């Protein structure tokens, strides 16, 4: 082997020794850890991801209430009431649900801190669904009819009278639900649900607020 060959062998041995020394020093933390240039790094953007996850829920059925209303309907005419007219007491039984809509949330509706410790969510107020009347549980409690009215109904002369009772009872159940605590219960339940969800994801400081939805 010539002089150049010996020099190349010596240089290769020196490089191997140097690399081994660097690796050992890095392993015992004497030198900064070398990073794999081919390794992939993932940056997490919790705000948009969290917002998308909430939007995909579409809406949360947060509270349900059962209601019973009394519908009192009287009809009359120029003739005496014992001939034409009626007094009806109808017991309407039904339900109504309150929900929180997530589908219209915008980008700034969910705010997440850089350290992933705090999150705030701004929602629109809870809304009521149309009330549902249970026609099997609803019934006429009492009815007084004039002679001609009774005969006319027996002959099928007023087929829409029962439907009118149903519609009026449904409207009264809707009104009763609006006056009840159903909306407030729905917002409280939604706040509890979202707080539990975010806590399971590691967030510690969670704020859920409600505001009128921006029409634009």
Automatic annotation (TrEMBL):
It comes from the Bacteria. This is DUF4230 domain-containing protein. It comes from Amycolatopsis rifamycinica. The lineage of its organism: Bacteria, Bacillati, Actinomycetota, Actinomycetes, Pseudonocardiales.
């Amino acid at each position: 082997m010539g002089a150049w060959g010996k020099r190349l062998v010596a240089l290769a041995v020196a490089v191997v020794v140097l690399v081994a020394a660097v690796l050992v020093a890095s392993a015992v933390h004497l030198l900064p850890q070398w990073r794999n240039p081919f390794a992939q790094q993932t940056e997490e953007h919790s705000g948009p991801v969290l917002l998308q996850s909430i939007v995909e829920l579409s809406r949360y059925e947060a509270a349900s209430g059962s209601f019973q209303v009394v519908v009192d309907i009287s009809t009359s005419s120029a003739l005496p009431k014992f001939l034409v007219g009626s007094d009806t007491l109808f017991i309407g039984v039904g339900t109504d649900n309150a929900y929180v809509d997530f589908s219209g949330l915008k980008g700034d509706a969910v705010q997440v801190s850089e350290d992933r410790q705090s999150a705030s969510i701004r929602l629109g107020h809870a809304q009521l669904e149309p009330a549902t009347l249970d026609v099997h549980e609803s019934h006429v409690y009492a009815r007084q009819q004039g002679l001609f009215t009774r005969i006319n109904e027996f002959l099928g002369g007023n087929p829409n009278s029962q439907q009118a009772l149903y519609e009026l009872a449904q409207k009264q159940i809707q009104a009763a639900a609006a006056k009840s605590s159903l909306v407030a219960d729905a917002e409280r339940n939604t706040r509890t649900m979202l707080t539990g969800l975010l806590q399971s994801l590691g967030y510690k400081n969670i704020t859920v607020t409600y505001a009128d939805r921006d029409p634009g």
